Task: inverse folding
C-alpha cells in the first residue's frame, strides 16, 4: 500500500569549509598560547567586552561557545548531572552546568574535533557582562574560585525598553573601570587607537553578519536558521578581527549568487518560519531534517541576530560598546522584544512563529508573558511553542515536539 | 468489483484504533488493539479485524492514512497526518461548526480550535509531563488498588470534595497517600483525580464556544465531560465513539488523498 518516500537532501554552503578552518585556527591559537604562555588569555561572556580585551592583547575564549559545542555533541548529557551533583541546580543555565560539569570531569569535545587539544585554554582573567543573565557571573565565579583567577565584569541593566543616557553612562564607566585591572594582568597599557581599530573591525563584522542574515528575506531563502547557527561561529569567537570579516566577505557572495539564481536552502520552500529563543543544540540536525522534509524554511531567528551590534562606533569606543551591549535583545523588556520580532516578521515575510521555551534559559524564552498570542493576533498567523532546552535534552520530548511542528506546518498548509 | 474502502490508523500511546470508511466517508467498521511494544503488529491486527468486520478484504483498501505517536511505524500506510489534524477532522465530521476540541489521551492532551469551515485555527499540547492525562488516572487507580474501569462509577458515589493539587503525577500519588492517611474515601479521591484532569486541561487554553471532547479518557470515563461542563459553565459534547475520532479523521484524509 505504501510508496517509498524520497529523502530530503541538504544543500551545503561551500563557505562552511572556511568557517570550520577559522574555528579550528581559533582553538589552536588559544591552545598554543595556554601551553606556551606566549599570550594572555581572557575568558569573556558572549556579549562581554571582547573588543576591549582584544585591544589589550588578550586572546579571547568564550565559554558559551564551548557550552554550545557541549550541547551539539551531546556531551552535555553526561556533564550536566556532574554539576547538578555539585550543587548547581538542573533549573539553571545548562550552558553553565554542562561546561562546569565537563571541567569537573576533565573532558572537552574540543579534543574530539581538534587533534592535540586536550583541555580548554586556562584563563588569566575572567570577564563577564550580566546583560544576558546572572548565570554568566555565577559561572565565571565558579572558575575564579576553582582556578584562583580574577573575575571582573559589568553589572548591566535588565528589562529596559530603550537604553537612555544614564544606562549608557553607567555601563561605559564600568567598562573604563576594567582597564586598570586588565592592564595589570596583560602587562600593557591600553592603546586607545588600537581599541578604536578593534571596535571598527567588530562593527564591520556585525554589518557583514547582519547582511548575511538579511539574505534570508529573499524568497526562496538561500539559508536557514540551522545554517546560520554554524555560520555565526566567526562572529561569535572572532568579532574584532580581520579574519572574521574576511570569512563573511567570502560567504556573502556565495549567498548572493544563490539569491540571484533562485537557489533555495529548502527545496520547494512552501512555508517561512521565525524561530524565537535558543537553539536546541543536540537536535539541530534532526530539526533541520524535519523542516526540510516539510518544505519549510526557518528564515530568521532572534538568536542568530543577537550578534548584530550596529551601535558600535570606532570614534566613540566605550560609549558605543556600552550602548551595543545594553541594547542586546535578551536584556530588553518584553515590549521591546515584541517590537523587534514584529519588525523581523515583516522583513522576512514569515508565515508563522515558533517559540522555543528553553527550560533553563528564562531570559531568552520569550513565550512566557503572552507574546505568541499577541504576535499571532497582530500578524494573523499562527504560532507554536515547543518545550525544550538549549543543552539539557532531559527536558526535551522529541516525539511531542515533532508532532507539534508537523501539526503546525499542516495547519499552515490548510490556509 | 468491490467498492473501494479507506482506512485510518491511529497509533496512540495506549491503544491503536482503526476505522474503515467508504468513499463517502461513512464509517463501516472499527477496531481497537492495545499498542503494546510492537506498533506494527498492533496496527496490522487492528486493520485486519476492522476489514474483517466490514466484510471486506485487505485488497479492498485503496488508501491508508496513519496518525498518532506511532504513525511513522505503520509501514503499510500510504501517508501520515498528525493526531491534531485527525482529531479535528474526526470531530468536524459530527459537529459541522466552529469549535474547540479537547482530546484527552493516554499520555497527552490537545486543545484544537477550528473555524466554521473546519479549518484549524490553533492548537495546544500539554507540556511533556503526563499531568492531566490518562496515564495520571491510571497511576491514581493503581495507588488506590482500584481497577481503572471502575473509576468512573466510584467517582460518581463521591460525597465530599477532595482536591489533588500537584501538577506532577508522581507527586500527586504521594499526595494521595497523604489523603488516605487522613481518612479520605477512595470514591472522593477518584472524583478528585478526575477533577484534577479537568483542571490541567482548562489551564492549557480558553474553552470558549462549542466544546467537544474526544479521546479514550472521555470515552471510558464520561464523568470527565460532566466535570468539565461544570467547570467551564457550559455544555461539553462528545461525538459517537470518541476514542475513534482520530482514526476516523485519518480515514477521511485517506479518502481525500486517494482522490488527489
Result:
Amino acid at each position: 500500500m505504501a510508496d517509498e518516500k524520497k529523502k530530503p537532501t541538504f544543500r551545503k554552503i561551500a563557505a562552511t569549509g572556511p568557517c570550520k578552518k577559522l574555528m579550528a585556527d581559533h582553538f589552536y591559537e588559544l591552545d598554543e598560547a595556554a601551553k606556551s604562555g606566549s599570550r594572555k588569555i581572557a575568558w569573556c561572556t558572549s556579549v562581554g567586552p571582547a573588543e576591549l580585551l582584544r585591544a589589550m592583547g588578550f586572546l579571547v575564549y568564550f565559554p558559551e561557545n564551548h557550552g554550545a559545542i557541549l550541547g551539539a555533541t551531546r556531551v552535555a548529557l553526561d556533564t550536566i548531572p556532574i554539576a547538578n551533583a555539585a550543587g548547581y541546580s538542573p533549573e539553571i543555565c545548562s550552558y553553565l552546568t554542562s561546561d562546569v560539569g565537563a571541567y569537573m570531569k576533565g573532558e572537552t569535545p574540543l579534543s574530539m574535533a581538534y587533534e592535540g587539544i586536550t583541555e580548554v585554554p586556562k584563563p588569566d582573567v575572567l570577564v563577564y557582562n550580566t546583560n544576558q543573565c546572572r548565570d554568566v557571573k555565577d559561572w565565571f565565579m565558579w572558575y575564579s574560585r576553582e582556578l584562583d583567577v580574577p573575575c571582573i565584569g559589568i553589572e548591566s541593566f535588565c528589562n529596559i525598553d530603550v537604553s537612555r543616557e544614564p544606562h549608557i553612562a553607567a555601563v561605559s564607566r564600568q567598562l573604563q573601570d576594567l582597564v586598570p585591572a586588565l592592564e595589570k594582568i596583560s602587562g600593557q597599557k591600553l592603546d586607545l587607537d588600537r581599541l578604536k581599530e578593534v571596535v571598527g573591525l567588530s562593527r564591520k563584522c556585525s554589518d557583514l553578519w547582519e547582511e548575511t542574515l538579511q539574505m534570508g528575506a529573499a524568497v526562496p531563502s538561500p539559508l536557514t536558521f540551522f545554517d546560520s547557527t554554524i555560520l555565526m561561529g566567526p562572529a561569535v569567537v572572532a568579532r574584532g578581527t580581520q579574519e572574521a570579516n574576511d570569512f563573511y566577505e567570502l560567504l556573502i557572495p556565495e549567498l548572493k549568487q544563490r539569491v540571484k539564481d533562485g537557489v533555495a536552502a529548502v527545496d520547494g520552500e512552501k512555508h517561512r518560519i521565525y524561530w524565537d529563543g535558543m537553539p536546541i543544540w543536540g537536535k539541530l540536525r534532526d530539526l533541520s531534517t524535519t523542516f526540510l522534509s516539510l518544505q519549510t524554511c526557518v528564515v530568521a531567528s532572534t538568536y542568530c541576530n543577537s550578534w548584530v551590534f550596529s551601535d558600535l562606533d570606532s570614534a566613540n569606543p566605550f560609549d558605543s560598546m556600552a550602548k551595543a551591549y545594553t541594547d542586546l535583545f535578551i536584556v530588553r523588556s518584553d515590549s521591546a522584544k515584541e517590537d523587534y520580532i514584529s519588525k523581523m516578521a515583516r522583513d522576512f515575510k514569515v508565515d508563522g512563529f515558533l517559540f522555543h521555551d528553553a527550560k533553563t534559559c528564562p531570559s531568552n524564552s520569550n513565550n512566557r508573558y503572552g507574546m505568541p498570542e499577541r504576535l499571532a493576533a497582530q500578524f494573523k498567523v499562527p504560532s507554536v511553542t515547543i518545550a525544550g532546552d538549549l543543552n539539557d535534552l532531559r527536558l526535551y520530548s522529541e516525539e511531542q515536539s515533532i508532532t507539534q511542528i508537523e501539526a503546525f506546518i499542516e495547519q499552515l498548509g490548510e490556509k | 468489483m468491490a467498492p473501494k474502502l479507506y482506512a485510518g490508523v491511529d497509533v496512540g500511546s495506549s491503544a491503536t484504533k482503526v476505522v474503515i470508511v467508504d468513499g463517502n466517508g461513512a464509517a463501516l467498521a472499527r477496531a481497537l488493539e492495545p499498542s503494546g511494544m510492537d506498533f506494527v503488529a498492533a496496527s496490522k491486527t487492528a486493520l485486519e479485524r476492522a476489514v474483517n468486520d466490514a466484510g471486506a478484504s485487505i485488497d479492498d483498501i485503496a488508501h491508508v492514512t496513519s496518525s498518532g505517536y506511532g504513525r511513522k511505524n505503520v509501514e503499510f500506510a500510504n501517508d501520515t497526518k498528525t493526531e491534531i489534524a485527525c482529531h479535528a477532522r474526526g470531530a468536524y465530521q459530527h459537529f459541522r461548526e466552529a469549535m474547540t476540541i479537547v482530546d484527552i489521551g493516554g499520555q497527552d492532551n490537545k486543545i484544537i480550535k477550528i473555524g466554521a469551515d473546519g479549518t484549524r485555527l490553533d492548537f495546544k499540547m500539554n507540556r511533556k509531563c503526563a499531568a492531566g492525562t490518562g496515564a495520571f488516572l491510571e497511576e491514581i487507580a493503581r495507588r488506590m488498588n482500584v481497577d481503572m474501569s471502575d473509576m468512573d462509577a466510584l467517582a460518581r458515589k463521591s460525597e465530599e470534595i477532595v482536591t489533588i493539587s500537584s501538577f506532577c503525577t508522581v507527586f500527586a500519588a504521594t499526595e494521595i497517600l497523604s489523603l488516605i492517611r487522613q481518612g479520605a474515601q477512595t470514591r472522593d479521591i477518584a472524583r478528585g483525580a478526575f477533577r484534577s484532569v479537568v483542571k490541567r486541561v482548562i489551564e492549557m487554553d480558553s474553552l470558549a464556544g462549542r466544546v467537544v471532547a474526544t479521546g479514550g479518557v472521555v470515552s471510558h470515563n464520561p464523568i470527565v465531560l460532566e466535570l468539565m461542563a461544570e467547570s467551564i459553565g457550559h455544555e461539553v459534547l462528545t461525538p459517537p465513539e470518541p476514542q475513534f475520532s482520530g482514526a476516523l479523521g485519518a480515514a477521511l484524509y485517506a479518502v481525500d488523498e486517494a482522490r488527489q
User: Anything to note?
Assistant: The mean pLDDT of chain B is 91. The interface with chain A takes residues 61, 63-64, 69, 75-78, 81-85, 108, 119-123, 125, 127-128 of chain B (CB under 8 Å). Chain B has nine helices and ten strands.
